[in-house]
């Protein structure tokens, strides 16, 4: 098999994937049998060599295993990963009811793929270059080689049509490699660490190959909204693909080299969205309620001399965690006399990590020097300022420490999520303890009742620590209760379920209204003010060959009228069509609120269509018109069409060569002059828009305008995913038909949608049907 360093593609004349890890390849009995395959760098087990040289395996109880275990068992799942020991081959085996498929890594792979490219290039780059990333072509080659081996192992065990869920930055090429080898698979990817802003990501010499690799997935999950946004921006900047909210249109013919689609103009829809990871909150609480663990927590405090305040930091010894900043702030507080070593002790667990990477060796020296200095300056014979531990502890001991700690310090400079913050909250069933949390940790998006800090601001961090130490019991309890609700509602099972729901979502959809949907409708119908927002094509009206012929199915109009007749109900249509066209086909009653062109056009209880472009957008529109008019004036057969917030360049009547030239010219000049422009590619048409509005934006506007406290949204298309993404916990999303979705419910066709509308009206009117 041949491979070129600047491409992630397979050589097509070979049938097998990479066989350099053939000794790790699964045996025949396992091949192609699994309907759910998880792929991660490490298997969820630790290897131990018995005296007789035989392998024994101990489950490493990570959150991911806990979350996926029941699913894996129920759905015939396999886990593909490295068993954590170099140069050893193992046949696939069963551990605790899960099939494990080991991938072999030799010493060189570990050095170059894992310690090199993953941990010395991607890790610092993705964490905002807190440490300088290294860029070496040999380690990139190793990354590609090992990614191919993981993809080969996954492809070999996945059943036809199986779902494969790939995890984390070590395996970003796997989605594309898998798609090329096995187009039948449904492929998801989750990035556990941040995705950096374009200005930083752009440093990576292999930035296009990585994006191309990831875009092989159907759903790409991130921790934070901002991470997904950074990713979509990188895709726009480097490939020029159309992105709308969470949806990216990836041309199917693009080989990743040019960013241009093939001849067909066909695209594949990829969803890039945040799915914040969590923990098994109930399991942590259960441990915390154990009397022996509570006794241990008391013992810990006693052993430390019963300080008034015990502060705790728990981190892998990593430069992203801001351990140095924490120690500096604590040291200054002791020096200023705002805290005293008699009253306050900081316990710092720094679990050993990546000890062969030189940046980590230097970090350890730096931290241990700082701890030593601080203790030398401030500790007394009876009181130690920092109780520092460079080891790993069993989970029970961690829980006892969380229970013992009055203040938990999470001061990460950049962190995908930070599970320690969530674990601390889950453990504190006593509704006590204060969490000081860096706003640069993903957890800060959800845990807003923590004391949020910017760890670079040492004075601010010091003030936050003092505030935490002095916080009255009532405030502590109020904040902790609210934090606990967040973590309990969104535990790791909810996380994996929502990711997999978005990824797989329904094969054949049965006719009728399913029971769980009916229950949700009953719940919704009780809301004070409710907004019923509906996509039109494919949702109320079946798809037809000529868009102007689309009509809602019989009974829809009456159902909508019944809703309009009720107090506290507003009905809206949310369409991708231009409003004039929507009015033509839908012929809505006058009190129906209308939004068209994916939210660019709005008509709310007035005869006028609003199109509120701001002045910078009007200027862009002028530039756009100037560039396209000049291109179409000089290339025969090309025409331009004005759209509500943009222009389209049509090349249908031009020769193929002229058409391509016109499109290339337009792209090049406009990328240069208007980098923020949204581009959508269709068959023989290139559409540019100065506003990247989505149906999600439309829905937000309608929610605000109608003052609704609950929203119902029904849609069938991938552009409706933006609207589903904008729904809140109490809202109800209804997907019509098959395909990946973020909606909570699904029905088969417009016929069921009309039945649902009739049902809502009846429930609301107090009539049981
Ligand atoms: C990556 C992302 C994201 C630590 N020391 C011990 C120990 N731990 C456990 C903690 C926690 C886990 O390790 C660390 O998770 P974090 O989320 O804090 O950080 P990373 O390892 O950097 O994880 C991160 C995560 O992936 C998940 O997506 O949140 O942002 O960087 O569970 O409790 N556990 C035990 N002994 C120790 O000494 N038993």
Helix content: 25-40%
Helical stretch count?
A: 24
C-alpha termini separation: 65 Å
Biggest β-sheet strands, sense, barrel: 10 strands, mixed
Strand content: 15-25%
Strand tally is: 29
Weakly predicted, low-confidence segments: 1-31
Average pLDDT over all residues: 88
The largest beta-sheet arranges its strands as: 5-6-4-1-7-8-9-12-11-10
Backbone structural class: alpha/beta
Observed structural traits:
24 helices, globular, ten-stranded mixed sheet, single chain, seven-stranded mixed sheet, 769 residues, alpha/beta, binds GDP-alpha-D-glucose
Describe the model.
- With 769 residues, the protein is of the alpha/beta class.
- It has a ten-stranded mixed β-sheet, sandwiched between helices. A seven-stranded mixed β-sheet has the order 22-21-20-19-27-28-29, with helices on both faces. It has a six-stranded parallel β-sheet with strand order 15-14-13-16-17-18, with helices on both faces.
- The chain is globular and about 85 Å long.
- GDP-alpha-D-glucose (GDG) binds next to strand 13, strand 14, helix 12 and helix 13.
